[in-house]
Amino acid sequence: MRSESELPLDDVPFTIPVADRVKRLPPYLFGKINKVKYEKRVAGIDVIDLGMGNPTDPPDRRVSDKLSEALGDWRNHRYSVSNGLGNLRKEVAKRYFKKYGVSLEPDSEILACIGSKEGFSHMCLALLGPGDTAVVPAPTFPIHAYAVMLAGGNVIQLDVTDPNEFLRNVAYTCEHLFPKPKVVVVNFPHNPSGTTIELDFYVELVKLAKRYNFLVMSDFAYADICYDGYKAPSFLEAPGAIDVGCEFTTMSKGYSMAGWRIGFCAGNSQMVRALGTIKGYYDYGIFQAVQIAAIIAMRHCDDAVDEVVKEYEQRRDIFCDGLARLGWEIERPKAGMFVWAKIPEPWNKMGSIPFSMKLLEEANVAVSPGRGFGEEGEGYLRLAIVENSQRLRQAVKQIGKCLKDEPLAVSD
Ligand SMILES: Cc1ncc(COP(=O)(O)O)c(C=O)c1O
Q1: Is the shortest distance between the CB of 140 and ligand 1 below 6 Å?
Q2: Pair (154, 99) in one structural domain
Q3: Does 168 share its domain with 33?
Q4: Which residue among 77, 115, 230, 277 is buried most deeply as judged by most CB within 10 Å?
Q5: Any idea where the Aminotransferase class I/classII large domain is (predicted)?
Q6: Is the CB of 263 under 6 A from ligand 1?
Q7: Which atom from ligand 1 is nearest to the alpha carbon of 219?
Q8: Domain presence at residue 14
Q9: Could you tell me the residue range of the domain that residue 280 belongs to?
Q10: Residue range 13-53, pLDDT digits in tens
Q11: Which ligand 1 atom is at minimum distance from the Cα of 251?
């Protein structure tokens, strides 16, 4: 047999030595579920998709009309500025003041991002490196952990479902870990658990940040989606918050503009500048027509956001009532786009991934297994209320039929 060095070059297997940061990422847990979902669709089977928080409703007509108009202006087809148009950042500042009483300087304390996820991820790159540690909420919205890992940092996951306990654990970690965490990530209303907090949580968090010298990154993606009169506070409302942290908001959810990729980072000017530096190298900003339409959305479409929230609230009730009729009692979320459902007995013994697969294969309903959000998510499903009321009713029917052989009972 010839050795490799004697083989013609074209016959030598060529391997791509990807960077260690790619190798550190775990296998994609939703891979098999996505494959089955795709195969069903190709076979013409109607899958009710409650898997992703991906709004199925279009944005308000005034926003899409403005986009069409902006497309007709050739100046909008050039590279834009990477930190976002001045008027867009001013609109974000106005919104923060109107909704939360927070004054922000548009030039130094606000930056436009290609969706909040991009901003969040690059902020991790700007703040963290090898040897640094970030605390993230558990169960964990994947990018909260993976953006830290991709930046080379270490992750500590702390249970977030009891927010006071989370604060105590942050303090304990800071007292006992060396080196101390550099960043604490918070995300309320929380994806996936739906946990919410009041402003006193952030007041306490800022005090801890100052005592233990850590930075705060608040992912406020579900700022607009609140029910039953609940109003989610902004981290930046807490006294001194701007000294220690920043917050990410998005047009994806309340404005149903997920595919447009537009979000914002607001807060501490040094953090905003650091993110701007990274972005200045990596991207040329958001398509200008999208930015112009986003200005119109924020300026004129509060009523549309209210309608979107009403719609989600109604869906939440229809869906939770329907599941309750099956014997599946679920705590109704006060905010966000997800129902975080404990898997009832006897199905909980199966594990959340096989149970999700069963619902997909037998009920044609796609959901996210809790395990996809880390070990703390095991035993739960995350169901996104992104399909309309009629399809949610249908989903309940199909789930009921699929589970009819075994009576449901949720254990404590
Ligand atoms: C908690 C959380 N943060 C961020 C995002 C991403 O938002 P964007 O579309 O602004 O990148 C999502 C989307 O599902 C989310 O659930």
Answers
A1: no
A2: yes
A3: no
A4: 115
A5: 46-399
A6: yes
A7: 3
A8: no
A9: 61-301
A10: 888 999 988 888 887 767 788 889 999 999 999 999 999 88
A11: 10
